[in-house]
Amino acid sequence: MSALRHGRLASRARQPATACPHKPGDGPAEKVLAAVWVRTYLKANPDTAGKISYDG
């Protein structure tokens, strides 16, 4: 399943943003997939945007 589709489905299912299966620390490809997943998740669920911390 693509990062786009999975992020959208997770958002619609009201899963937390931490449900992202891609870990940015696992290499450049995973970093891109994580960014795509989170961007798609937030686009489908914009009220979550202020609740996500990027500080680690």
Short recap of the structure:
With 56 residues, the protein is mostly helical. Helices cover 48% and strands 0% of the residues. It is globular and about 30 Å long.
Class inferred from helices and paired strands: mainly alpha
Identify the overall geometry. Answer: globular
Terminal-residue CA separation: 26 Å
Q: Give the biggest sheet.
A: none
Order of helices and strands: HH
- Average pLDDT metric: 87
Number of helices: 2
Helix content: 40-55%
Number of strands: 0
Range of strand content: under 5%
Tell me the radius of gyration.
Answer: 10 Å
Count of separate structural domains:
1
Low-confidence stretches: none
Folded structure, characterized:
There is one protein chain. The chain is an all-alpha fold. The protein has two helices and no strands. The longest helix has 17 residues, at 28-44. The relative contact order is 0.23. The mean pLDDT is 87.
List keywords for this structure.
single chain; 0% strand; mainly alpha; 56 residues
Q: In terms of topology, how is this protein built?
A:
Layout (H helix, E strand, L loop, with lengths): L2 H10 L15 H17 L12
Helix pairs in contact: 1-2
